[in-house]
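Entry type: protein chain
Record version: 2
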Amino acid sequence: MAKFLDRLIGGGKKTKSDADEYQELDLSEYEEGFKGETANSYIKIAELSGLEIMPELKKQIYEGNILMIDVSPAKKDKLVFDRAIKDLKQVVNDVHGDIAMIKEDQVIVTPRGMRIDRQKLK
């Protein structure tokens, strides 16, 4: 569990690509009761490698989804990183959501009606 949380909030070193880090869990016995149901919103995982992904990130926020964004690739170019964060903050302001940096390489963005508690649970 601690290893999963370290990966989720970026505590461990990255040695694999993000796709390799996620492991599919067999939750079929729990999902039986949810067949046919759709969710109102999703938690989406994204990687900010450049400005070309910004339209899709904005769309996801406007649709009410939560984004966990790995910004480490964009941090190599300060102009790209600053522009992307500025754009994300503007969208968050538009939808009355929230945005916060988790560790140094992860950003979480929430839609309307959700706030990020900046105090760690201990």
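Comment: The domain at 2-110 is CATH 3.30.110.150 (Translation Initiation Factor IF3).
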